[in-house]
Amino acid sequence: MFSFTVPLGKLVRAVSRLRGGGSALPGLVVEKIDPGFMQRTLSSLPHGVAVVSGTNGKTTTTKMVVELLESQGLKVFTNRTGSNFTRGVAAALLGEVDWRGNLDADVAVLELDEAHAVHFVNKVPPRYCLLLNVLRDQLDRFGEIDATALLLQRIAQRTTGTVVLNREDPRVARIAGTVNGPEVLYFGLDESLRSTFPNDDDMRTAAPGTGTQVDVPAVEAADVVLRRVGTDDADFEFDGTQVSTHMKLRGVYNIFNAAAALVLARTITGASGRPGDAAKLVKALSEVAPAFGRGESLTVDGQPLELVLVKNPSGFRLGLKSFPAKGYASMIAINDNYADGRDMSWLWDVEFESLREDGVDVVTGVRAYDMALRLQYDEVRFGSVDTDIPAALAEFIRGAAGKPKRVFCTYTAMLAIRRELSKITTVEVVS
Amino acid sequence: MTPAEDTALHASKGTIRVLQLYPRDMNIYGDWGNALVLRQRLLWHGYTPELLEYNVGDDFPEDVDLIVGGGGQDSGQIVIQDDLQARGDQLRGMAEDGTPMLVICGLYQLFGKFFKTKAGPVIPGIGILDVETVGTDERLIGNVTLTSPEFGEVMGYENHSGQTSLGSGVEPLGTVSKGAGNNSKDNHEGARHRNVVASYLHGSLLPKNPAIADFLIRTAVERKYGAFVPGTPDDDFARLAREHAARRPR
């Protein structure tokens, strides 16, 4: 059936791109005039839809799953723009379908934030879902952690094929007991690595590690286990064998999510009738580069400048742990715009002692003074404090000439910093 | 040992024992920040802090000079309720005796008469404060500024669906000029009784409100040693953080 939906949507998309507008408007238009468009288009895919959700690591994990599947010869549709909500998916679809509304792909892999994922799965039941973690993120939007876990549970309950769960996050692992029907698979960590992943229940008290005991199910066998992480390599175990590989990705948490991506990619390729080629999967995994701002490394004045996105206490703590301060000049940029979360309390749930020896060169962002105050109470030295991000960045680059640099930044601060950096170095354009 | 600890070890004016109440179950949205600020400011004032914890089932420590307690999810409040009732007389006695206490959000509610949760069950409080809380579907979220007769302008962040009404036996902490405070009808926030300060503001409350931190410290020191000899903490960044926070949207 020919409908006007696609031509009209594409027209709105073209116009809104010309105006330099956001990516959601055309999706909104299509939703209004043809509410069945997304469901119809996605249900035509031979291997269905996979949804990736959770608090931390969605973007990088989705990117990994896509690249792993592509290495197996599958054509993948994904919402690359970072519009991780339903309208964003509809808008991304408009960019990919032909004028008759056909999508040339084998499978869709979609990153969706928890609340929007529930709206999405109510419209389009996914064949697969991958649930990463439930951490304190933007609780000012979602309420409390237990409520966020219920959102993920709803996604799992709407999934028809396979649910992939983080065995090490009790609130995620517990979801296994609430689904009937779909197969449940886990990704897991070697016992020696578990202590590097603080769970929110272990959040700072005078005696860390005594967190509230959530009912933890007995340790299930995991489909893929991350056994070891080195500086630029890692060991994964699956099908009873251990595989070592070089990794371009940095940060323990990114590499743990690589185990998650492997489980999902192996499941999808297995179901496609061409069992995954393990050697090719691992090679593809070793070549995945970080998503923008997630440990991304740029070059400024011949020195590396790393951008580490921090948006919640666990992410910040893992960021500090994964990227040691030694030898690096550091800047911290904290904004409190809607996309960052307005509540600054999370800075007090992060310990900054690891920066005490080297100090922080520059503190910036709308809430630079909240951050400076936080450092003062942890007795971490800091240089200049300036709420103006472009000026602070220039000062940082000038003051730390000849040294490798690292910037910890919230989401909108990262966008501002990339915009500034694009004037002086090559920054990948994300459209 | 941090530089401040090093200094304090050599010339301490006395020791103050600070108890964190239920940090395992009632610790969300930066509650640790309040304990950290008390510890550091005690050091900066020249006193030695001793940070203690009390969790469900523990022995209650002796000679506590100052108590700080935080917020929690509804599930955390249910976990602690029996234990809190068992400690009710003791905590009421300490509060009436003048022990300085700071309770935020969840423990503020349970220091009142009761918290009727949205799901139905009523969690009894220990009645130190003449307040009652009822869970609602409306979540009060955002930046808050209020004016307190004792502490001047107080700022923070609220995130709660329990709405609290004050009885005649308590005073509010202050009058709200931005945000909701105790409930969506009255324009007041928090509660004051004896040396107990109760508030919905987390984020954390004490870093950007050093006047409240110093009130708790001064009261604890005066009760123990008779006189408080303050040091000179550098509050420039607290002042600047307050100025910037005050300009942020709700």
Sum this structure up briefly.
With 431 residues, chain A is α/β, with parallel strands linked by helices. Chain A contains 15 helices and 15 strands. A nine-stranded mixed β-sheet of chain A has the order 2-3-1-4-5-6-7-8-9, with helices on both faces. Chain A has a six-stranded mixed β-sheet with strand order 10-11-15-12-13-14, sandwiched between helices.
The unreliable regions of chain A are 204-214
Main sheet properties of chain A: 9 strands, mixed
Can you summarize the main beta sheet of chain B? 6 strands, mixed
Mean pLDDT of chain A: 83
The residue ranges of chain B in which pLDDT falls below 50 over 5 or more consecutive positions are none
Order of helices and strands of chain B: HEHEEHHEHEEEEEEEEHHH
Number of strands of chain A: 15
> What structural class results from the helix and strand content of chain B?
alpha/beta
End-to-end separation of chain B in angstroms reads 39 Å
Describe the oligomeric state of these chains in a short phrase.
heterodimer
Find the count of extended strands of chain B (DSSP E, 2+ residues): 12
Shape of chain B: globular
Determine the mean pLDDT of chain B.
93
Helix and strand arrangement:
The complex is a heterodimer of chains A (431) and B (250).
Chain A: H1 5-18, H2 25-33, H3 37-43, E1 49-53, H4 58-71, E2 76-78, H5 86-96, E3 107-111, H6 114-123, E4 128-131, H7 139-142, H8 145-157, E5 162-166, H9 170-173, E6 183-189, E7 224-229, E8 233-238, E9 241-246, H10 252-271, H11 278-287, E10 294-300, E11 303-309, H12 313-322, E12 329-333, E13 360-364, H13 368-377, E14 382-386, H14 389-399, E15 405-409, H15 411-421
Chain B: H1 3-10, E1 15-21, H2 31-44, E2 48-54, E3 66-69, H3 74-86, H4 88-97, E4 101-104, H5 106-111, E5 114-116, E6 122-124, E7 131-148, E8 152-166, E9 174-178, E10 188-189, E11 191-193, E12 196-199, H6 205-208, H7 210-225, H8 236-246
Parallel strand pairs in B: 1-2, 1-3, 3-4, 4-12, 5-7
Antiparallel strand pairs in B: 5-6, 7-8, 7-9, 9-10, 11-12
Helix pairs in contact in B: 2-7
